[in-house]
Structures are given as structure tokens and as C-alpha cells.
Amino acid sequence: MPRVRYLLITAALLYANWAIHAYRSAVLDAEFLVYGQSLSTGATSAGRGPVNKPDARTAATVRGKITNAKTGSPVKDVRVTLQPPGHGEVAGSATSDSNGGYEIRVAPGLYNLSAAKDGFVMTPYLDVANVPVLELGVGQEAAVDLRLPPGATMAGTVTDVSGAPIADANLQATMKIYRQGKIEFQLRTGARTNDRGEYRLTNLPAGRYYLQAGKRGIAGPGIRTFVPMMYPGASRFEDAQPIRVDVGEDKSAINFRLPDATTYSVSGRITFLTTGQPLANMAIRVDPDHPGFGMNSSTRSRGDGTFRLEGLTAGSYRMEGKLTGGDEGPNGYFLRFFELTAADITNLSIHVGYGTVKGNLRAVGGSLPERMSVLLFVRNPLGGTGYALSAISHTNGTFEIGGVQPGICDLAIRNDLATTGRAPEFFVGPVTVDGQDVSDSGIRVPEGTAPVNVSVTVDFRPGTITGKTLDFDNRPIPGANLVLMSADPKKRLLYPYWREIKSDREGAFRLGSLIPGDYFLMIWTGYRPWAGLDPEAFAILEKYAVRARVERSGVVSRNLRLTKEIRNMLDALSP
Question: If you write DSSP's letter for every residue of 225-273 in order, what string do you get?
């Protein structure tokens, strides 16, 4: 099987070294989910001891007070945890006393600090630039006070159309965000109903949520399935209405009635691409290709290569097949995506094989290093997460990536193999196949055995934008959120034309490795990496965006001001 690596790539790495074409926002969503897990792991690790017992002669001390963000009163029994960034291990922890006080001694180093208690929103430490890292020196005593917002709750019941409770139904609260040229629904939290069909979502930050109820499960004959519903009784996201909750608010009686769903089957035949021979005994698995609801199903192909999956509900799916105990290389694996609407899928023909992308890197305005990482992102045609394959270029700039499934691919170059000095900045383009520029449209890998030959220009003359984020009195705003996007709305769907960063502690920012062209810059405040940008807020900010034209090797200076008018309009959207 080709090495498939589902994309969990941090934006910081991408911004620093990558020139990426047409890759979608799942990369950023994954980053924020990983970060959220890191913090919550520490908050729930009461039974785990420190990673290393600190040396009393060099240990640093963190002490502070935990208060209720709404009332200002101290909060006891709050779990305060220190963890090294990017690790789940607990370096030190403490529980706040009746006065809200706590104290933790740890070895010097860099840490994430978080505070959590049931009934409150988990709260991380943030420095003046909204960076969630606490640096502790030898023998240092740091004071860190945290204000915990009371968590909001949403509760109700899930029943069938006759009013009978549905046990183990799934509830999920999502937020609508605008990112990379389109509106998405991003998962925030979830819950399950009890045997009486009751659910309760707790510890929610204030905001506007889209609530959905459904039931996941394994498909099969006799398995009862339901149509997922959005509040208030909508079957489509487009018709859903948000539920607005304030800090600590308790909303109840948010009830759902789910109609029974029609189920469908998917059947077809699997053959080798090169010989046309059937593949027998291939393990096939189907999973919903979205964070919502759907059924899982699995089977094996018969001796003649045919297969049949039953009990699937309407939705988007990802199908994978793998030979076990036989050919487990690229010729023993396939990945396909399909949409199931209002009818069975029959006679699905799957040819198992793989393509190869071969290419040559050509430098402009600089010299290629001895080796560079070449990454190929295979797009998901349904808009979800695809997968990535990689190779290392040779000293002459050639590369080859095998095991590529048929589809549309995007190419990225990363210069992370340098051993000394700062790697020079660059952008990628044009990328050509048979003389045609496919930089934005993507590399088409057809079913077939002939390699796709790609010519890749690595241009060491990128554009740069620098500036400061300022308030209405021209004072620096540290840690402000910035979005750089193409002035062409269609290009915003392509990764190189959408960047999200923060200004530093002095309010300064720098955006490098830019493809020449016209861009807009926007600014807003707050630390909610999981939340993205509210579509209504985006509509406001887009009207006041600052335009910048970037040329090759050009440096453009633009200061971004958050005026009172913009701030007041954004505040009006907040709960």
C-alpha cells in the first residue's frame, strides 16, 4: 500500500517554508483540533505525575489565582496543568484552594498552562501577543492569574417521529466560519443521548452554534437508521438556524424528532488496472467523509471481484480497499470518494493500480539546494481531506512519486533539509504538464501506467508584506489576527492565496514567500484559533480590507488599523 499520511500539518510550518497550490482548509482545522486535544489532555490527567521531578536548586515556580470571569469571585477545585508544548505529558499540576490560589514547581523550560473545571470553559495561559507558551527560567517565580468563563449548556431530547426516545443518538455543536474562500461548519463539541433520549452539552464558550442530531453506526440489514436534523428541524445546513448562548447561559428543551432514513446499497467490481483480472478477498471499508453523520460498512470482494455494501444512508463517503496476506503494495490498495443521494449505486467499476508523478525542479532567481522535499496532495473531489505523498529531490532537481491514486493533485515544495543557515524564501510556479500551466487547476493523474511528467519552477524572488497592527489611537496591537487573501475571490480557495497569522509582541508582522499578485489584508482581535472567522464578521472586515500589490522580490509596507467603527461592528456580533 502506498504510504498515505492524512494531513495534520501546522500552519506555522507551512507559512515558513512552503509554497503550496490549491490545498484546502482541512489542514488548518486539523492543527486547531490537535492543539485543543493537547490542552484538554492536561486538564484531565489528574492521575498522572510530573514528567520529571524538578531539581529544587533550579526549579521554577508558577503561582496565581483562579477567578470567575463573570463574577470575579475565586474558584476552587480548578485543575491547573503545565505541559511541554506539543506533548501530552504533565510536567506539573495543582488544584486551586478555596481562595482560588494554586502553586506548581517545575523544571525550567517552555510550557502550555491551562485551567479546567466542570461547569467552566477550559482556559489557557496567553502572553501579551496571545501566544499560549509560558517560558520559565532557572529559579524564576511567575505569577499567572486566570479568569474562567462559566460554560454555557444546551440540553433537550432526541426522539423518533412517534415520540419514542432514541438512545445513543449523537449530538454535535458546530460553528459557521469563513475560511479560504468558503463557508464551513466546524465541530466544537458533541454528546450522546441516554436511554431516555436526553442529552446535555456542557462547558460551551459563548457563541452562536448550529446544533445537529443524528445517529452513527454500522450499516447492515435490519439496522434502524435516521435522517440527521439541524435545529430547528432542518435537514440541510443551508436551512439551519443558529442557537446563541451567552456566558454561563443554560438553554433547555432543544428537542429533535428524527424520521427514519431510507437506506441504499453500493455494489460493483474490482479488477487490476494492468491485467483486468478480478481481485478476490479484498477488504473494503466505507466511512462518512465528513464530521457529520452517516453509516460505516465493510465487506470483502468475492472470487470474481464483485462486492456489495448495504444499509448506507445518503451522504458523502470515503471507500478504501486493501489486500491482506497478498499484494500489499500500491497494486493492493485503492481509495475512492463517492456521493450517495437518492438511489443505489450499481456497477461501480474500480481499477486497482496507481500512477506515478515524475518531475524536474528548475530554479529561477537563485540556486536549488542539493535536496528538497516534494509533496503531492491528492484532492478529495467532495471537498474533504485528501492525502499526501512525498519524495526527496535528487541533486539534479529530479524527483519521482509513486503510488498515486487517480485524481487531481497539488504540489508543494519544502526546503527543510538545509543543515546550516536560514533557508532562502521562494514560491512555486509555474507548474506545467505538457506545456500547460496547472499551478491552480492541479495535476491530473489518470488511470493508467504512464507517468505524468511535471516541470516545476522554484522562484527565489517572492514578494513580502510587512507592517504593524494598530488601534484607533495608532497604538500597536500585539497578537492581532491577520488574514491575507487574494483580491480574486476564486483564488481564495487555493492555499497559497490565503494566509492566517498573528502580529508579534510589538504588533509587527511579516508575510513572506508570496506569489506576485494583488491581495487584501484584514485584521481582528481575540484568541480563538478553533473558531476561525465568523462569516458576518468577514463581510464587515472585507469592506475595510487594505489592498496590496506584490511584485517579484518586492517588499510592501502596510499598517492595519482596527478603527472604532470596525471594532463596534464586530463587538455587536459577539454574544
Answer: -B--EETTTBSSGGG---EEE-TT-EE----EEEPBPP-EEEEEEEEET
Tell me the pLDDT tens digit for each residue of 489-532: 989 888 789 998 889 889 999 999 999 999 999 988 765 544 56
Candidate CATH numbers 3.10.20.600, 3.40.50.300, 2.60.40.1120, 3.10.100.10; the one for domain 11-31+354-459: 2.60.40.1120
Mean per-residue pLDDT, 534-542: 86
Which CATH number applies to 152-258? 2.60.40.1120
Half-sphere exposure of 27 (CA within 13 A, CB side): 25
Pairing of strands 264-272, 306-312: antiparallel
User: What distance in Å separates the CA atoms of residue 171 and residue 151, rounded to the nearest whole number?
Assistant: 18
pLDDT of residue 237: 81
Could you please report the per-residue DSSP string of 354-413? -EEEEEEEEEESS---S--EEEEEEPPTTSS--EEEEEE--TTSEEEEEEEPSEEEEEEE
Compute the Cα dihedral for 338, 321, 32, 123 and give only its sign.
positive
Contact 22/440 with Cβ under 8 angstroms? yes
CA dihedral 121, 125, 131, 134 (to 10 degrees): -150
Residue 347: what residue type?
A: N
The pLDDT mean for the chain works out to 84
CA distance 523 to 537: 11
Contact 204, 152 (CB under 8 A): yes
